[in-house]
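Q: What structure does this chain adopt?
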Amino acid sequence: MPTIARLPDLLISQIAAGEVVERPASVLKELLENCLDAGSSAIQVHLEEGGIKLIRITDDGCGIAKDELALALTRHATSKITSLDDLEQVSTLGFRGEALASVASVARLTLTSRERGAAHAWKLRAEVEAEPEPAALMAGTVVEMRDLYYNTPARRKFLKSDSTEFAHCADAVKRLALTRPDVAISLTHNGRNLFQLAPADSTRRIADILGDDFIGAARAIDAVGGPLTLAGFAIDPTRATDTKDGQYVFVNGRFVRDKVISHALREAYRDVLHGSRQPAVCLFLNLDPALLDVNVHPAKTEVRFRDSRAVHQFVFHAIQRSLAAPVQADATVSLIERPTFAVDTSKPAISSPAVSHYSVPTPQFQSTLGIAEPASASYLAFARAAQGIPQAAAPRAEIAPQFQPAGSVDRASPPLGYALAQLHGIYILAQNARGLILVDMHAAHERILYEKLKTAFDNQQIATQALLIPAVFSADPLDVAAVEEHSEALADLGFQIAPLGPNQLGVRALPALLQSGDPVALARSLIADLREHGVTELATARRNELLATMACHGAVRARRQLSLPEMNALLRQMEDTERAGQCNHGRPTWSELSLAQLDKLFLRGQ
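A:
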């Protein structure tokens, strides 16, 4: 039987290093946290060969006394906690007292420090029976790590290329720099200065690291709820990418990868993201340290909340409120260029000019948008004035739209301006105080209907519109059985569908909001969902997906000619609708070209 023996201290430290020192970036993170905990106002980072050959960090913090240098290199030695109470209230980034000892067990480590008020600095090499020796240093501490895994070559084989390891190191520096904008940080690799960040405010530091484009396309977050505060930026849904690399979440100044917060983000963006895209965020969550357990993982990238549900709901509602802000709140921010995607052209194209100015309003669509009557003479006069068309204009067919000079535009005009024309029966062209607005009318109307359906469903106030003649369509026996079984659920959704035979169904009423849609297409999609998911799941997780499908089928289709009153009514509805910047599938509904962008296209002023 094998005997039980106590492991040597060096082997114990090497085992612990396996948990803390995964790669050079892990070493860098631990050392940078010590610098910030020491009260540093400036930190310099020098790397060689991706941090494998050298990591040297210089700070101007409080320093370490000569008598404590050797103690700092031993395991479980720290100045940050002394009791369990301190651990439960810990507010420093580091606290385990394992970082320096773990690094010293797998690399050549030298520690040079000058305590404030000391006559000079002292240097100590992490070697057996080494003694501190005098050194030259103005203030603070220099930690130098050379030849990572020199004594454990098997682990060194698992490291990636120098460029890959450096990329991880640079990311670690950026994360720490985001948490402390008041600290100057510089990074040098192989003698080349890559960036030097001066002290700045939070917004400037985020822009320096994530780019001005991120700030320009992001929505500011600032929420308070009891002991919880959340600040930072969340990207506009149309700027989301396919990776999570742009998600920076900090809890009490500590970068974390937390499942609770990640799920809250996904839920907040659920209705506005296209496909499987991921939102970029930079969020800072702060709460009482007593409500947080940071002693979950050796690398301290995971945390545990005492009340995870409260944190989830707080983050979810804070992000959702920001994303749900109507267009008025975003009026001063230009949206990005519209990504290309297929436009629904299932309806036959109408033989008409490419750009239409006036057409006969559709009663059903007018009622959806709240238009009481067709265009009046006074409205047409107003529309002509908005387009810069003289009152004594030629007949409609001969009218050519004229744009007003920039100086004559009413600065108090609505955010989405006033409609000028319709392009190819797909896009609405409008003019506001800043330039040209382009609107995808189907996507915009889809979002409006979707939000109205959600509100009506929540309030159990879905109004129905009876059809003069039932819309009859063929159906298989399973569809007929599903309609008979779920008649009450269909009624709750505003539908009256009845069997008219063993293989026939008839739509006798549908939601008033969708009266301009195709009753048969709406009924088929609804029955298919009921058959696949049932009423129970439909009432919870699938509810919004079903309402989104209904809104998509009920929205105005491409190639549909709209009158100016209809177009303007759609713009006003967008300004009053939450999440109007994206359709139910996460695609953008509108884009803006400023006068400066238009001038650039035509080289004006150049």
